[in-house]
């Protein structure tokens, strides 16, 4: 049995993005006979059946540990100490690190253990810092952080990206050896996330009633973090344009944090009665909530990060409106409904066209579901992960 040290510099487990990828990777590895130990920040929910070792609490850590933030430097220092102590105390066969901070910490642990390092790259570090407003795209600090990012990208024995666009970025922008760069797309549990059927109608009706969603309006669903870089501000502006033009729909916005902030924006735009904010939706309950939707929207602005929410939309059989970005086209192809990136008017137009043609788009939703089932099951991603482990020379055994 192989033993994996997994470095996750985040509040694992939370109900979004990279956390879902980490969780599903772990569950696959466990089914294959591996023991996985996760090192993570203090906060975060429990992940059933996963061993998590957390850093201690420090003053000021009551703020939410989300995205790029300078307070994470302190978290990462404590995480490094925790990981290194674990590396000195017990043997591991491979280090699997998530995010750039994790790769830097993991590189030291891998050297101590004399085992391979695999880096799960989930977007550009400097791009994320710019999107979160803590770094400007010029000046000495940007050049310094870009250099740090490039240094980290060259440390692992293998780098895994969630998109071909990410792999291209690593090779062309950061000069990584293409032989060491592998793409494993984000995947989805297609058994849990499935289309609505007639058997679901009573549950759908009851859930709509509990949320105050009108039974007679089409529902546009969004599931993810509530933040400007996810395009939530633009989505609300697009909704106001759409509703002002007389096309009625209800927007079900599921996620966290800052629900009250975005609720206030919706009220200021005069669309409060047409928008429901649920707050955090547990990952294991998300399938039921997504089945309330007739159309899904993914207004994420980042050009370098993956966009895993597309996959749960696809598996649920929903037509999808998204910004015209390479990562989105990589998943959706010609089945996507695209808007000009960052443009609320274009997004409103795309949403309006889709809402006016929902009946015709039913076949598009079915095709997206089929694409998810055929190409984006976690079992397929897991097998690719095992192949990479073998390529880098995993010490120890695994189930054949």
Average predicted local confidence, pLDDT: 91
Number of strands: 13
Low-pLDDT regions: 396-400
Helix content: 40-55%
Kindly report how far apart the N and C termini lie.
11 Å
Instruction: Name the beta content range.
Output: 5-15%
Figure out the total of helices: 15
Structural class: alpha/beta
Largest sheet: 7 strands, parallel
- Secondary-structure element sequence? EHEEHEHEHHEHEHEHEHEHEHEHEHHH
Q: What is the radius of gyration?
A: 21 Å
For the biggest β-sheet, the strand order reads 3-2-1-4-5-6-7
**Approximate shape:** globular
Give the key terms:
400 residues, alpha/beta, seven-stranded parallel beta sheet, six-stranded parallel beta sheet, 43% helix
Q: What do you see in this structure?
A:
Strand 11 (295-298), helix 11 (309-315) and strand 12 (320-323) form a beta-alpha-beta unit. Helix content is 43%, strand content 15%. It has helices spanning 17-31, 72-89, 99-113, 125-131, 139-153, 164-172, 201-211, 232-244, 259-268, 286-290, 309-315, 326-332, 344-355, 362-375, 378-391, and strands spanning 3-8, 35-40, 51-54, 94-98, 117-121, 158-161, 181-183, 219-223, 250-254, 275-279, 295-298, 320-323, 337-339. It is built from 15 helices and 13 strands. The protein is an alpha/beta fold and 400 residues long. A seven-stranded parallel sheet has the order 3-2-1-4-5-6-7, sandwiched between helices. Helix 11 (309-315) crosses helix 14 (362-375). The radius of gyration is 21 Å and the shape is globular.
Short description:
With 400 residues, the chain is an alpha/beta fold.
């Amino acid at each position: 049995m192989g033993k994996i040290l997994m470095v996750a510099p985040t509040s694992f487990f939370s109900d979004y993005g990279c956390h879902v990828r980490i969780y599903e990777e772990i569950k696959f590895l466990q089914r294959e006979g591996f023991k996985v130990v996760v090192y993570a920040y203090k906060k975060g929910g429990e992940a059933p059946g996963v061993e998590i070792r957390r850093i201690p609490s420090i003053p000021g850590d009551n703020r939410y540990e989300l995205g790029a933030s300078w307070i994470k430097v302190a978290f990462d220092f404590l995480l490094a100490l925790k990981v290194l102590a674990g590396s000195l105390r017990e043997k591991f066969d491979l280090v699997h690190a998530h995010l750039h901070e994790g790769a830097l910490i993991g590189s030291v642990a891998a050297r101590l253990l004399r085992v391979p390092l695999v880096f799960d790259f989930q977007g550009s570090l400097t791009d994320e810092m710019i999107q979160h407003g803590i770094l400007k795209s010029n000046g000495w600090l940007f050049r310094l952080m870009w250099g740090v990012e490039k240094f980290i990208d060259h440390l692992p024995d293998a780098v895994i990206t969630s998109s071909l666009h990410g792999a291209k970025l690593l090779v062309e922008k950061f000069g990584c050896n293409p032989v060491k760069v592998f793409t494993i797309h984000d995947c989805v549990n297609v058994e849990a996330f499935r289309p609505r059927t007639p058997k679901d109608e009573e549950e759908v009706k009851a859930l709509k009633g509990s949320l105050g969603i009108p039974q007679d309006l089409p529902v546009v669903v969004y599931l993810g973090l509530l933040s400007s870089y996810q395009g939530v501000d633009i989505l609300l502006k697009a909704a106001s344009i759409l509703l002002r033009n007389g096309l009625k729909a209800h927007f079900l916005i599921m996620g966290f944090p800052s629900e009250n902030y975005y609720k206030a924006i919706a009220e200021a735009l005069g669309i409060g009665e047409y928008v429901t904010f649920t707050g955090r939706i547990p990952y294991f309950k998300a399938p039921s909530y997504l089945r309330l939707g007739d159309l899904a929207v993914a207004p994420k602005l980042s050009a370098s990060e993956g966009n895993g929410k597309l996959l749960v939309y696809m598996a649920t059989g929903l037509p999808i409106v998204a910004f015209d970005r390479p990562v989105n086209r990589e998943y959706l192809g010609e089945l996507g409904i695209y808007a000009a990136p960052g443009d609320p008017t274009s997004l409103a137009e795309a949403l309006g066209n889709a809402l006016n043609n929902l009946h015709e788009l039913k076949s598009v939703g079915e095709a997206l579901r089929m694409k998810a089932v055929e190409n984006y099951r976690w079992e397929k991603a897991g097998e690719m992960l095992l192949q990479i482990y073998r390529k880098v020379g995993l010490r120890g055994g695994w189930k054949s």
